[in-house]
Write a structure and sequence with these properties.
Strand order of the largest sheet: 1-7-8-6-5-2-3-4
CATH topology: Rossmann fold
Strand content: 15-25%
Oligomer: single chain
Radius of gyration: 17 Å
Largest sheet: 8 strands, mixed
CATH superfamily: Vaccinia Virus protein VP39
Shape: globular
Number of helices: 8
Number of strands: 8
CATH class: Alpha Beta
Number of domains: 1
Structural class: alpha/beta
Length: 238
């Protein structure tokens, strides 16, 4: 499939190309997890939508394939448990989960609305420890921009990420920074999941950042999240 700029791709992404999500056969997280928020349902919807999409490009995430997943934003560990339970079965697959476990500005503005805010790290670690492939999950406590240099050095400056899940702070600066730092490390053919793409600030940051340096084979919008398959990225770190 022909690669195109992110701007051109988004221009082609009309409402009628949005993948609709059906409840049947949607993966579910086990009852033994402890989550105070249900935001992870957006990821379950996206997973179902891309697996069942018959109107466009097929996204094949084989649980048995080797893959390196990186997620930015852990909160209580729901997305970490999802990746661990369903997509880390290969003996060499692994997940790097990055979060400072402080909560974001929107959480601290109304802390009474977030029951688990005071114990995020403990809850996340307890949940991840219960997941299917917990031994393949590396939790890095810190801000994504601060831990990037160590990861970049560890993987010798080469693209090394197969699946990138961006769900950190939702202000435009943070989102754009995560895109610029981490997307150049996604291998050609790799997938990027953008949570909260329907949020205006998040969408503005993603569109602005990627228009300048990324080409995608295709993108699928699932109503709240956007998934794109990377064709090529101009390495901004060289």
């Amino acid at each position: 499939m022909t690669a195109t700029s992110f701007k051109e791709l988004m221009g082609q992404l009309k409402e009628d190309t949005t993948v609709q999500v059906a409840a049947a056969d949607k993966k579910q997280l086990a009852d033994h997890y402890n989550f105070t928020e249900g935001w992870y349902d957006a990821l379950l919807n996206t997973d179902k939508a891309i697996r069942s999409n018959t109107q466009g490009p097929k996204v094949d995430l084989d649980p048995a394939e080797k893959r390196q997943i990186v997620e930015i934003g852990v909160y209580e560990g729901a997305s970490s448990c999802f990746w661990s339970d369903f997509y880390l079965d290969h003996e060499e697959s692994s997940l790097i989960s990055i979060d400072p476990f402080t909560g974001s500005e929107e959480h601290h503005a109304n802390p009474e609305n977030y029951a688990g805010l005071g114990r995020l790290e403990r809850t996340a670690r307890e949940n991840i420890a219960k997941s299917k492939n917990c031994g393949k999950v590396e939790i890095i406590k810190g801000y994504s921009q601060h831990v990037f240099s160590d990861l970049d050095a560890r993987f010798a400056l080469e693209p090394w990420i197969d699946v990138l899940y961006i769900d950190g702070a939702h202000d435009s600066v943070s989102v754009a920074r995560d895109c610029v730092l981490y997307i150049p490390m996604v291998k050609p053919g790799g997938l990027v999941f953008f949570d909260d793409y329907a949020h205006p600030d998040v969408k503005r940051a993603i569109d602005g950042a990627l228009n300048s340096f990324a080409k995608f084979e295709f993108a699928i919008f699932t109503g709240w999240q956007l998934v794109g398959k990377v064709a090529s990225v101009a390495n901004k770190h060289a």
